[in-house]
Amino acid sequence: MFEPRDAPYPELKKTHTMAHKGRPWTDYKPPPAAPVWAAIEGLGRYYILLAALELDVFDTLQRIGPSTVEEVSEALEAPVDHVRSLLDGVVALDLLDQYRDVYELNDTAKRYLVSDGPATMADLIAVAPGPHVNWTRLAETVKNGRPAEPIEDDPAAFYVPLVEGTFTTMFRCATRADLKIRYSAIRAPRILDLGAGGAPWAIAMLNGCPDGTAVINDLPGVITVAERKIDEHGVSGRCELRPGDFHTLEIEPSAYDIVVLGHICRTEGADGARHLIARAFEALRPGGRLVLADYFTDIERKFNPHAVIMGTTMMASTQKGFTFTHAQFSEWLRDAGFTAIRLIEPIGFQQSFVATKPAVPRSVRL
Ligand SMILES: C[S@@+](CC[C@H](N)C(=O)[O-])C[C@H]1O[C@@H](n2cnc3c(N)ncnc32)[C@H](O)[C@@H]1O
What we know:
Elements: H1 18-21, H2 34-54, H3 57-64, E1 67-68, H4 69-76, H5 80-92, E2 97-99, E3 102-104, H6 107-113, H7 132-136, H8 138-144, H9 155-176, H10 178-181, E4 190-194, H11 200-208, E5 213-216, H12 223-232, E6 239-241, E7 256-262, H13 269-283, E8 284-294, H14 305-317, H15 326-336, E9 339-347, E10 350-356
Helix pairs in contact: 2-5, 4-5, 9-11
The structure holds S-adenosylmethionine.
S-adenosylmethionine is lined by residues 155, 159, 163, 166, 170, 195-197, 200-201, 217-219, 222, 245-247, 262-264, 293.
């Protein structure tokens, strides 16, 4: 009986040559351990990047230009050998360039990692995975069906830094979404932004619509971020801040041209997401449009690892959070009464459903 040996790969067997068997390699090809190492290294990769940010490596290299490790260690006031080890780690992540003894910013670092980069994610990196302690207790969370420290226990502590960190990306996304949605073609839209964070969607839309007005909602401890951002962008005079829980907040029916649900459905579970979609439908005028931004998984939940792992991240740190498939959201939107449902991707990895509340109610349509 054939019993596969646990052979290293590739292994040339002396008796197993082209002359003897027609091909030189063992039949049994063990799978590589690379995915296991990738998982192990994932932790190190994340903390290498985090340490580099905490030590201001990227901003320092932007300020002093291409530099030797001695120059960087002097600027960081840290020992040379430790700085070299960290910088080499960052090079291994493809987030810095290195030539011999000289390190410099690469294009990725210039765009995403320096604090004033055009698409900076520098403030997002520490907070994006959720409270780190929850990852160390993931098995317990899966068993209990509840995280050790759900972010809902102290939402402001988690969301204030998060929405500061995501603002640049979401604002770029919302601004570019105009190319697909043409919100700027609406003369004086009334906008409702639920769970607005720093209100990147409302601000981008108000920038595009000089006569537009917006109602901006978030939790009482978080809405201060929106308050500051609308002020910085010079649109506060056209905004009403409406703090409260988006599930119970008072919302005028049939009053809005655009309702934004920006990255709020994935913490709410299926029922919560459907409730928010229903609330958006109710709030829109006939002909008004919903913009629902989130991370969506494919129908088999495996071809878009970014959205899949975002779902696990939600499970790790929220009471009800999971990501859902495009198909589930499409169905929920249709069930709520929306038509003209489409998916846009204004910038890479940032998708939104856009859907219209029909001018003629479903009961009257043929
Ligand atoms: C991931 S952030 C999204 C922020 C913004 N909409 C965007 O697209 O960038 C989720 C926001 O929802 C807010 N939020 C969470 N639960 C809420 C609730 N029950 N009522 C109102 N806002 C809530 C959080 O405070 C946070 O600002």
